[in-house]
Amino acid sequence: MRAVWYETTGVAETVLRHGLLEDPQPGPGEVRVAVRASGVNPSDVKARSGARGPMPFARVIPHSDGAGEIDAVGAGVDPARLNTRVWLWNAAWQRADGSCADYVCVPAHQAVPLPANTGWDAGACLGIPASTACHAVFADGDVTGQTVLVTGGAGAVGHYAIQLARWGGARVIATVSGDEKAAVARAAGAHAVINYRAGDTAAAILDATGGTRVDRIVEVEFGGNLAISAAVLAPGGVIAAYGSMADPTPRIPFYPLMFNHVTVRMMLVYLLTAPERARVITRLHDALEANALQHRIAAHFALDETARAHQAVESGSLIGNAVVMLD
Question: Where in the chain is the domain with CATH 3.90.180.10?
């Protein structure tokens, strides 16, 4: 099979190799997926660069997200799953072989039916960006009638979070860093969009809500936004945080948050429990079937351009997802 892999961490164009490897065969309880699209996420880039520590395997085929068709099944897997369209989650999480190859074998439950109305490239964005957004929005229940603040509303996760919160019946406020990203957030369905570089962000959020504090924050930058969060969050509100890159070791204003009865939910999509994963999969399926999701694919790359895809994600210049196409 065609594949991209690395045997040492480092710069993408130096360590990523493109060539042929032996076709994998599914073991008991596994399916083999003929990959049509492989999603490239920041976590894939960080693992390849060495930012996540030493390599756990001698050779790694990167990328946890992907989409394709099941073309072989292992012992104990219903043969009826053959030739079905699926999307993948955690293909490369604590595993040597991810989706950046013609074929990948995964436990059968990690290959999820992909609705016919969803393309391969969109399916390759469901495992991390869309699943993170879905859990962040709905982990504490329905959001009907609530006000949800999505920070980084034009980001890969934020873009899905706006749509899912809106689909779930919430009023959605989004923050962005400029006009182009504001247009993306508005197109996703945000009721109000605020440029956090253009003044008092907390005041602008409260102005957009008519002075009503928000019920839930889908948070891309927990530490950097803590002061704003404390100022705009309603009593009993929730911060669902999936990132804190600008301030990875923030000082927590414990008593202001405690006296507001705030819940801080730290979340990592790779570690969802089985019930949490099942709820995310069900909600995403329902949203996809309802045509409630736009999929913003910022760039497509061929398999032999995987190093370029990693560079694009690493640069932070993309407004949307990067996908390697194998079809």
Answer: 2-125+295-325, 132-270
